[in-house]
Amino acid sequence: MSDFSQHFKKNLQSWENRTPVHIESRFYDNEKFKSTKYSLNDIERSILQDVSNKSMLHLQCHFGQDTLSLANLGAIATGVDFSPSAIKAAKELSDEINVPCRFLESNVLELNLDEEFDIVFSSYGAIGWLPDLNKWGEVIAKHLKKGGTFLLVEIHPFVSLFEGQDYFFDKDMNIEKEKGSYTDGGENIDSEFYWWNHSLTEIFVALESNGLKLQSFEEYNYTPYHVKGMVEREPGKYVLKDRKQQNLPYIFSLKATKK
Ligand SMILES: C[S@@+](CC[C@H](N)C(=O)[O-])C[C@H]1O[C@@H](n2cnc3c(N)ncnc32)[C@H](O)[C@@H]1O
Predict the structure, then answer these.
(1) Which of 103, 117, 220, 242 qualifies as a cystine partner to 251, CB 3.0-4.6 A?
(2) How far apart are CA 231 and CA 251, in angstroms?
(3) Has domain 5-222+250-258 been given CATH number 3.40.50.150?
(4) How many H helices and E strands in the chain?
(5) What is the domain partition of the chain in residue ranges?
(6) Is the predicted pLDDT of residue 191 greater than 80, yes or no?
(7) H/E element holding 217?
(8) Which residues line ligand 1 (CB under 6 A)?
(9) Which residue has its alpha carbon closest to ligand 1 atom 12?
(10) Could you read off the pLDDT of 22-81 as tens digits, one per residue?
């Protein structure tokens, strides 16, 4: 892998700035989470089915809401993220709601746990932070049991076009600047970060070439998150406010198994 250490450093700083804002945001509604112990959406929930007693590795777990939701459903869950503040907050949340869960700090592309899981899971806004999807596929394969399942629910790469970006990967892409984050709050934080677009082909190739076989792929014409600039078309289904065309792909889900 090329040396992306400066890129990761910049991205990590961006996440260290965002995480405290996210914990306090209405978007993540952590108070509600503490009482429901549940933050998953129907998309991932229906694909995951019964997770009880399954060993699960959650990549890029942020401050742990989804990992803890899985643990609360009976999974033996491990969440990984490179942000020290996110991992610290996740551990505190686990203690506070009394749901045991393991949280580890690591760059996902350097993860090497010497353990194999029944399920590896990652979702919503994860792979754009990764410059090398082949390495990502290798990490997933390495941490899956034979026959184990990888589930990815992600922002559809088509969305980058709405934002005036390219569709295909560009390793030399420029740094992005953002005021605030995708949640409410933190309007004054300046975020500078690198983001890499990954085409669907690139995602499929990364998994296939590391020994994963695609089992299902679905596209959704809404996002379950109320991100800035979106309106609720149906309960719990959000689309961009100012687009003439509303029947566009916002999210995709993918399930693959290790051969
Ligand atoms: C948009 S969040 C994931 C969202 C998650 N589905 C949620 O809502 O909780 C992206 C996460 O990726 C993490 N991240 C970014 N680059 C990473 C890397 N190279 N290794 C590990 N974690 C990374 C960030 O710290 C952040 O917690």
Answers:
(1) 220
(2) 15
(3) yes
(4) 8, 11
(5) 5-222+250-258
(6) no
(7) strand 212-220
(8) 8, 11, 15, 60, 62, 65-66, 81-83, 86, 107-109, 123-126, 129-130
(9) 60
(10) 999 989 999 999 999 999 999 999 999 899 999 999 999 999 999 999 999 999 999 999
